[in-house]
Design a protein that fits this description.
182 residues, mainly alpha, Arc Repressor Mutant, subunit A, 2 strands, 54% helix, Transcriptional regulator, MucR family, ROS_MUCR
């Protein structure tokens, strides 16, 4: 024969009392709270509602951009919170980062991590000189030179028969390390 809710609640509170000391009032409150939880679970089960104990999904109303917050990003598939949505986590939903962004209408350039982390990475990249190096790389690929030294050389060669001098730029850290290795 199945146990009643009161019996189950009493057993749970009794187990709790064996590990911690409770006053009579605290035991009564604990018994009542335990009974109410068991009663609600039983009602949910009878209605066919799966009860997620302690796993409440966040209420994200409005646009999916609200899932990307300052200190966390909320997975729109399962409701879990992360600092960054890794490809490993997205694989559990059968998605890639690109597919996730397309499914939820996010920009394909939107980082899938908390804004705080994105800002920190941006500052570190600027401190290392990535924007300038990227511009130089793009200019080198397209055949254009936009550095100050080359601009000065073009102006000097435009003059009729003038002797031109070019400034030499200092080698980059990568060039120095490559030179020391060889």
């Amino acid at each position: 024969m199945a146990k009643s809710l009161v019996e189950m609640a009493a057993e749970l509170v009794q187990a709790q009392c064996s590990s911690t000391s409770l006053t009579a009032e605290e035991m009564a409150q604990s018994l009542q709270a335990t009974y109410n939880v068991l009663h609600n679970l039983q009602q949910d089960e009878s209605r066919g509602v799966a009860a997620d104990v302690g796993l409440a999904k966040p209420a994200l109303t409005g646009s999916p951009e609200k899932s990307i917050q300052k200190h966390k990003i909320v997975c729109l598939e399962c409701g879990e919170e992360f600092k960054t949505l890794s490809s490993k986590h997205l694989q559990t939903h059968g998605l890639t980062g690109r597919e996730y962004r397309q499914k939820w209408g996010l920009s394909l350039r939107q980082p899938l991590c908390a804004r705080e982390l994105t800002d920190r990475r941006k500052k570190l990249g600027k401190a290392r000189g990535l924007p300038d190096n990227l511009r130089k790389s793009i200019a080198a690929r397209s055949g254009k030179t936009t550095t100050k030294a080359s601009a000065g050389t073009k102006k000097a060669t435009a003059g009729a028969g003038k002797k031109t001098t070019t400034r030499k730029s200092k080698p980059s850290a990568a060039a120095k390390s490559a030179a020391t290795k060889s």
